Amino acid sequence: MNSATDQAPLISLRGATVRFGVHTVLHGLDFDVHRGERIALLGANGSGKTTLLRLLHGQLSHAGSRRVLLDGQGREPSQAMLFQRPFLLRLSVWWNLMLALWLAGVPSAQRAPRARLALERVNLSAHAQRPARVLSGGQQQRLALARAWAVRPQLLFLDEPTASLDPSAKRDVEALIAEFAEEGMTVLMSTHNLGQAKRLASRVVYLEAGRLIVDRPTQAFFTERLPEPAAQFLSGERA
Amino acid sequence: MGSFTDSLLLAWEMATRWDPVLWQVVGLSLQVSGTATLIGAMLGLVAGAGLAVVQFPGHRLVVALLNTMLALPSVVVGLVVYLLLSRTGPLGSWGILFTPTAMVVAQSVLVVPVVTALTRQLVADAAQGNGEQLRSLGAGRPAVAALLLVHERWALLTILLTAFGRAVSEVGAVMVVGGNIAGVTRVMTTTIALETSKGDLPLALALGIVLLGVVALINLAIAGLQWLQREQESGRSQPQDTARAAEGGAAS
């Protein structure tokens, strides 16, 4: 087991159930996220990966419990989420970052230096004054990563962050995610890309129809025998 | 056909010889309708954006009523405002009946529902899917509404133009509360109505053409702004190589 699991979990779900109207999308999930983990959520379309991310991020109402580890001052761990298609305001790259910092409650004196640093980090400094929505798909995703990174989250949620990117942009975004994880950020990502899960994750979770089927360290997930649905997914028989 | 050509010529002549009476009427029309649109914008943008992001019991009913008010007959609005502002009405002490201020009040009543309903729809559509991302960044409902208004600012211009069009082209409300007093409350639409009733159809038509021309000019200005914005957003034209080189430069 990861040594991180020795600590109290940052987020803990018990019997978490999410319903959209009459449809139950997640069924009574028990799930813990520990500091420093890099978790990949795998599963077919509609298996509940994105819903689980949104639930962990605190964006969904649910049945069951969701406990968050508070720090000494009673604050929740800071979080950010990167969506598959990031929403960027019809403003410049710079103002998209500055507004994200304002929303995160960063003091005004710190906003500009942090925004500059974030742009350097994702290699977009030269595009600061361009309208954000004219950037290429890969650049937009990097800007969204910069926006998330700039608020220094302890927990970073990524919903299929490279799903619609070309191979080069995919590599850039993956490299950034790996760097952020190296810095100690706890990362949870949903993905269809098994190679990405192998490269980036320390733990892999397989979901099917809103149920957690497999939850193992990455090495064990890809080398040990899996339950039938997960084995079929891995062999490409389930998309 | 002949009278239409005559009217066109007359309109051209009136506009180019800088007829002071005509331009006083045009100026008052723009002033009254512009002020009403401004008031409509201030109230309607806030109310519309609020309705788009806040749910409460009876929300659907409020939206249905609001949409119904889009078809509010201007003469009915004029009558209600008249009753409020008349000497025996609850606001009679203001003493503003038959003044341009009363006309602004009446047109504001017409315009606020237009701006509110269209803004609500615009922001609600933008919030679908995107609102969650803004909330994920830490935005509360007021911030989501404000940011989506900024995001949709160019579409809002079209809404404001629609509202201005509604105000400047109505005749019932300003006629009732303004009284069509020459030199005081006479605007383009009430002048057209008056000249038509007097049988001076070429002059009425000429005024109509001037009215259309004024609205067309405003429309063109806004279309120009929107074109500029599209041009700016299609700055995607920056070649990928240049972008990469620029990134490399920034990194070095």
Description:
The complex is a heterodimer of chains A (239) and B (252). Chain A is globular and about 50 Å long. The longest helix of chain A is centred in the C-terminal third of the chain and has 16 residues, at 167-182. Chain A has a 6-stranded mixed beta sheet, with helices on both faces. Chain A is built from 8 helices and 9 strands. Chain A is an alpha/beta fold. In chain A, strand 8 and strand 9 (211-217) form a beta hairpin. Chain B is mainly α. Chain B has 11 helices and no strands. Chain A binds chain B through residues 54, 57, 59, 80-81, 83, 86-87, 89-91, 99-100, 103-105, 120, 123-127, 130-131, 133-134, 136, 139, 147, 151, and chain B through 129-130, 132-139, 143, 147, 150-154, 232-236, 238, 240, 243, 246-247, 249-251.
Which consecutive residue ranges of chain B, at least 5 long each, have pLDDT under 50?
236-252
Tell me about the largest β-sheet of chain A: 6 strands, mixed
Distance between the termini of chain B: 72 Å
Number of helices of chain B: 11
- Helical fraction of chain B equals over 70%
Q: What Rg of chain B do the Cα atoms give?
A: 23 Å
What strand order characterises the main sheet of chain A?
A: 5-6-7-3-8-9
| Beta-strand residue fraction of chain A | 15-25%
Average pLDDT of chain B = 87
